[in-house]
Amino acid sequence: MKNLKTSYGIYSKLFLGIVSFIHLLSAWIAFLFVIRFRGDANKYWFITQSPEKFLQKAPLPLREYLLYYINYLPAVILDLPLWVGFVLYSAVGMAGIYLLYRAFPLSFFTTPALLLVYAAVLLLPSMHFWTAMIGKEPVMFLGIALVILSMKNFKRFRSLFITGFIITGLIRPHVAAILLLAAFGGYLLTAKKLNLWLIPLMALILAAFGFILLQSHWIPGLSWTGFQRVLEIHHTQLSQSNTYVPLETYSWPYKLYSFYFRPFPGEISNLWGWAMALENIFTQFVVLGGFSALLLLLFRYNYKPNLQEWTILLFFFFLAIVLSMAYSNFGLISRMKVQSLPFMLLLSAYWMQTYLNLKKNDKT
Questions:
Q1: Which has more pLDDT, 7 or 186?
Q2: Is 52 in a helix, a strand, or coil?
Q3: Among 9, 73, 74, 274, which is 20 to 30 Å from 231 by CA?
Q4: Residue 318 — φ and ψ, nearest 5°?
Q5: Whole-angstrom Cα distance, residue 137 to residue 90?
Q6: Residues with Cβ < 8 Å from 27, sequence gap 6 or more?
Q7: Buried b (16+ CB within 10 A) or exposed e, 265-292
Q8: Cα(100)–Cα(318) distance, integer angstroms
Q9: DSSP state of 303
Q10: E strand or H helix at 13, and its extent?
Q11: Helices 136-150 & 173-190 angle (0-180, nearest 10)
Q12: What is the average per-residue pLDDT within 81-86?
């Protein structure tokens, strides 16, 4: 047993080294991509506004303005080059990936096929690309990973939950509200005894998020008609892009499916489109296998998912429901789904390994 633990420790360190190298390579590729095609990274690093203008536009540093505040010291005062920004942000993204690894340790997976799935998920190209980019994605991934890891033992890791929640709330308040709803839903589904004071507290926090979103102009007001009008304008603008997908016209099942598992092979005829299509084939088979295993666990073994599992599952669905109403562009969607899909993929592998373990115990 001691030798087995030692072996897993060696393999884990080796694997994390490989993941770190791939992430650094992804940062280099992302840097070259931005140099050639430009993108939001330039906007966040080459800041033309003064701090006074930040304060006028956003006294409370939220969303992109928080990144301007953070980047002002290295990018403007210290005048560091763009590649340094990629190193810094890729380190933040790698911290999030490490927390994802901690949430689902390598040592749990003993089936060779699932070890390959596990490795493939932690080496997922889209995850590494977007979390190595200067922008919101690395910071969001770190915040979400902190919240998900805290769900393993909430009493012990409560500080991780609060930290992760604050990070996500400052960068993308709407995603933080979705994550909070998922965590609260997981609590309702797993708690042996409900604390009724949590209900008004949840309402108060969500109201605060609503106020923040109103102040940041992410939503126009409390009018549903006004909100729909903003969505229509958004879809009209995105319809001019090369990677537009008319999600607003789809039925809800196909809308959610398209959010996570499109483009299909050949749907976008360039290198990026084919890379995403091949990745989507892999991810949808893993998720399908995970849900199949979950159904078998529920009906054969009376399995009860824990708080972490429910949080990931609900976040996976809630995020797609909300964001598929606003985003109708494969490029934007590929960034948005990185916030939940890697967690769902490892949870799917976890369910498959759990089912195989229980099935093996039945035979013995």
A1: 186
A2: helix
A3: 274
A4: -60, -40
A5: 10
A6: 86, 87, 89, 90, 132, 133
A7: eeebeeebbeebbebbeebeebbebbee
A8: 20
A9: -
A10: helix 2-37
A11: 10
A12: 91
User: Which residues have C-beta within 8 Å of that of residue 207, sequence separation ≥ 6?
Assistant: none
187's CB contacts (< 8 A; 6+ apart) are: 198, 307
CA angle at 281 for the pair 279 and 284, rounded to the nearest 5°: 105
To 10 degrees, what angle do helices 307-323 and 173-190 make?
A: 140
Cα 99 to its chain centre, rounded Å, is 12
Amino acid occupying residue 344: M
Q: Which amino acid is at 180?
A: L
Q: Show Cβ contacts of residue 104 under 8 Å, excluding neighbours closer than 6 positions.
A: 118, 346, 347, 349, 350
Residue 81 has pLDDT above 80, yes or no: yes
How far is residue 71's CA from residue 253's CA, in Å, rounded to a whole number?
Answer: 40
User: Would you list the DSSP string of 207-239?
Assistant: HHHHHHHHHTTSS--S-HHHHHHHHHHHHHHHT
CB atoms within 10 A of CB 323: 20
Tokens describing residue 92: 């933040």
What is the distance between the alpha carbons of residues 127 and 121, in angstroms, rounded to a whole number? Answer: 9
The sign of the dihedral angle between the CA atoms of 235, 240, 246, 249 is positive
For 73-104, the DSSP string reads: IIIIIS---HHHHHHHHHHHHHHHHHHHHHHS
Which carries the bigger pLDDT value, residue 361 or residue 132?
A: 132
In the predicted model, what is the mean pLDDT of residues 64-87? 86
What is the dihedral sign for C-alpha 86, 52, 62, 69? positive
Query: Do the beta carbons of residue 290 and residue 313 sit within 8 Å?
Result: no
Tokens representing 96 are: 């999030």
What are the angstrom distances between the C-alpha of 355 and each of 47, 98, 311, 342? 52, 25, 20, 20
Considering only 5-14, 172-181, 255-264, 341-350, which range has the smallest mean pLDDT? 5-14
